[in-house]
Amino acid sequence: MTTHGQPPADDEIPASADTADNATSAGADHPTGPEGVAHPRRIRSFVRRAGRSSEAQKRAFDVLGPQFKLDYQPAPLDWPAAFGRENAPRILEIGFGMGETTAHIAKLRADDDFLGVEVHEPGVGAMLKRIGETPLSNVRIIQHDAVEVVENMLPEASLDGVHVFFPDPWHKKRHHKRRLLQAPFVALLASRLKPGGYLHCATDWQEYAEQMLEVLGAEPTLENTAGGYAPRPDYRPVTKFENRGLRLGHGVWDVVFRKRG
Ligand SMILES: C[S@@+](CC[C@H](N)C(=O)[O-])C[C@H]1O[C@@H](n2cnc3c(N)ncnc32)[C@H](O)[C@@H]1O
């Protein structure tokens, strides 16, 4: 296990994952797409992982799910109705895992609204539990493929920020096509940012960090806020896992781009 969070180790990926082209994702070219954005090929950036929810996570699902979980639907999200306020900055987080970072940032930035999208059910339960314990009123969750959420629920120029922290690195070359941050999906994400909005990614996998710099750097509507890698913004906490890696001498890279005005 080399990387952050609890991603599926590449060795756990079923052989069929190589050919699961009927799913959604981030992948390579496809001739057409929404609003002139090349549509990603239908390859998922995730596999459904085994892993049971704890009793506490299940309870959080039942008690807090109805208030804080939003259904996926192929129609624009009504943010004021979902969050109960009109003009708060809108931040999307893709793949929040168990929600440690999300909860920290949402507490710190209480004036911002956070939409967390995650497919892993125990993670959604864990996030709901944190929402109850902290408590947080500015987080909503959609349990669905983030690519479809971005495509179908988030209109152009509607977001103030996007967070993608430690996305699954898909170490093996034959799995690189599953990486979330590839040109078509980055173009789609950029189209959803308001002018001046930001895209913040972090990874502990150097070769994916290089890919992030390259792909975001090649997106004409984005500009780098730093010369290359960015210093870790204060709002992003160093998680327990990250700390352990840092102690072992592993690197972590932040990449922060802004939508051109
Ligand atoms: C390596 S984990 C990192 C979790 C968390 N961001 C952290 O820093 O601990 C990546 C997460 O992204 C989620 N994920 C991957 N592709 C996704 C997608 N297309 N839509 C929603 N979640 C996705 C996975 O389920 C996994 O929980």
From TrEMBL:
Region (Disordered): 1-42
Chain intervals with Low complexity compositional bias: 15-29
Enzyme Commission number(s) of this protein: 2.1.1.33
GO CC, one annotated term: tRNA methyltransferase complex
UniProt cross-references to InterPro entries, sorted A to Z: SAM-dependent_MTases_sf, tRNA_(Gua-N-7)_MeTrfase_Trmb, tRNA_methyltr_TrmB_bact
Pathway where this protein functions: tRNA modification; N(7)-methylguanine-tRNA biosynthesis
Pfam families listed in its UniProt record: Methyltransf_4
Class of enzymatic activity (EC top level): transferase
Reaction(s) catalysed by this chain's protein: guanosine(46) in tRNA + S-adenosyl-L-methionine = N(7)-methylguanosine(46) in tRNA + S-adenosyl-L-homocysteine
Gene3D superfamilies: Vaccinia Virus protein VP39
Keywords: Methyltransferase, S-adenosyl-L-methionine, Transferase, tRNA processing
Binding site for S-adenosyl-L-methionine: 93, 118, 145, 168
UniProt-listed PANTHER family: 3-DEOXY-D-MANNO-OCTULOSONIC-ACID TRANSFERASE/TRNA GUANINE-N 7 - -METHYLTRANSFERASE, PENTACOTRIPEPTIDE-REPEAT REGION OF PRORP DOMAIN-CONTAINING PROTEIN
Job of this protein: Catalyzes the formation of N(7)-methylguanine at position 46 (m7G46) in tRNA.
Record-stated family: Belongs to the class I-like SAM-binding methyltransferase superfamily. TrmB family.
Name listed for the protein in its UniProt record: tRNA (guanine-N(7)-)-methyltransferase
Gene label: trmB
